[in-house]
Amino acid sequence: MFDSTKLFLFLTAAVLLAVAPGPGMLYVLARSLAGGKREGVLSALGTFLGGMVHVFAAALGISIVLAKSALAFAAVKYMGAAYLCFLGVRMIVDARKEQATTGTPSAGTEPDVGTVRPVRNPLWQGIATEALNPKTALFFLSFIPQFVNRESGHVFLQFVLLGTLSVFLNTSADLIVIVLAEPLGNLIRSSAVFRRRQRTVTGAIMIGLGIYLATSESK
User: What pLDDT digit, counting tens, does each position of 38-66 carry?
Assistant: First the structure.
């Protein structure tokens, strides 16, 4: 069903994105530091369920288009590849901006992992936080179609399987963060160099992946 080369690329990119300390991971970390491991696990489960909302919503909408139109399939792939390059450039630019501001994170991009107030129901807040995030929807709409093998059919099933795998990897990384919450919180808070290097490396990988997918032969 899947092209082996692109499946390998997907797994590589998905793992790298899962372990990168982005807003979702920092949200779970903040919940863990504020309310303990139980609250962290519930938050991670909530973000998993919220992510699955985007997976199924994107699969239902885009699979119909991709299955019926080769032109639409190509258009989605090229736009998605361009978006991945844009994400990579933005990560690198943000890393440079953070360096210029002496390691202070940009407002709205990372929660203060030491001061987030506990919530009554972290599960539902996790679901709402992820499900209502338009950037997550845009990411799935641009990222997953790059690895769907249209010629083999079952576009909806491929989309759901790849999306579920991506969300599962993200949640697995979040659970590891929960176990290592205190030392990771100290590292992310104190090490501006760590944040800059992570964003720069991840950004370069995203740009490379976008260029490869845009120039490779469509399947």
Answer: 888 998 999 999 899 889 988 887 766 66
